[in-house]
What does this fold into?
Amino acid sequence: MSRRLNRTRAVWRVPALVEFRTLGALAVPIIISQLAQMGMGVADAIMAGRVSATDLAGITLGGNLYWPLMLLFSGIVMAVTPSVSQLHGAGQIRSAGAVVRQALWIAISGGVVLAILLRNAEPAYRFVGVDERAIPVAVEYLRAASLGLPAMLAYMSLRCLCEGMSWTRPAMFIGLSMLALKVPLNWLFIYGEPRLGIPAMGGVGCGWATAIVMTYSLVAMVVTVSVSRVRASGVFSAFSWPDPTAIARILKLGAPIGLALFVEVACFSAATLLIGRLGVETVAAHQVAFNVVGVTFMVPLALGMAATIRVGYNVGAENLPGARRAAWVAVGTTMVWGTTFAILLLTLRHDIVALYTTERDVLELAAGLLLLGALFQVFDCSQATLMGALRGYKDTRAPMVIALIAYWVVGLPLGASLCFGAPGIDAIGVHGLWWGLVAGLAVAALTLYARLALIAGDPARVAILRLR
It folds into this structure.
């Protein structure tokens, strides 16, 4: 009996190790591309901050409006990844081109709509009552950056095609080249170049640099798809007019992905705005702690994307044990990553915070928040990978509802009540808001875990979802 049990464990262990290596090969390029994207934001902040605090505040306000809406629209075209990965697994990759051509119609039209919204954002800033000095910079930054949105969303569609075909390196190389291009373009437009007739634009120049880099990303991805094995999808071998049925199918799958991303990012943005009522030292401490957990979040985010690819591929190949194994190996890897960094945060939090600030009040408060950040880390990492695995099964509506309840019914209301006080609840400040966020993430992670266990263990449900 024990010999048979050992043999069974060995049979599981070998495929799990192979799956771990496969996930790693997919995830590492995604991690690098995500870090490159973060690097562009860091370059904007550093270079605009050298001009003035007003310019830095302006691009920050612009980003606070730009990114939640951008994620909402890009989440829709992310439906391409599970759709293509399932077709890839089923040996029907030629059908992927038709799917992506319809996604490109969504991307371009959605980019135009989003650009129009962002180019008319000034009333929103005046309604909120932000600092009058920063509004002109924020508005002009958005008007410039919005010009690149149709190209960026089209790039995302083609990137998802590559990733759906289990090829994640193009996004890495293009992402790194985007960062390499962004820095000199920032310098050119922020500080000006009289010899080229380019005036100094300050923070607004970041928006023009962003638009150019977005356009470049589309050109680079079109070339990559055209000359690589991805051309087997036939995405550019024919022209397709918008097909309402096909577009509705993509929206049905992708809209919940976009809304789930939007409600999560919007929740954290709202939390930051609430913390703004507690003073600059508290805001600074919150930003330091949030930045620390945000950097380590890149790994589980990438593992979630890799899980979408692997789960989708195995579902398409009708290898449901392989899909289940891919999902749980990704989740297990994330749990190890999150727990490891939670321990590091607990033991090295003062040293980590000291890299960001020398102000004692900010340092102590940020180190205290990182105690909660250890819990935050475990749950946030888990929910990101669980969400990605469920996308591989094309299960997107239930995760959207889970995200909405976890963040906006549990997390933010509880955090605000603990932070500022409520009937029967004493105010405990910023720690209370972080407790609320941790609670919301815990609800999301545990519920998504239960959802994945339900879907992965039920072939009938998988078959129904596959038809989406």
In short: DSSP finds 17 helices and no strands in the chain. Residues 2-49 form the longest helix (48 residues). The two ends are 44 Å apart (CA to CA). Residues 7-12 have pLDDT under 50 and may be disordered.
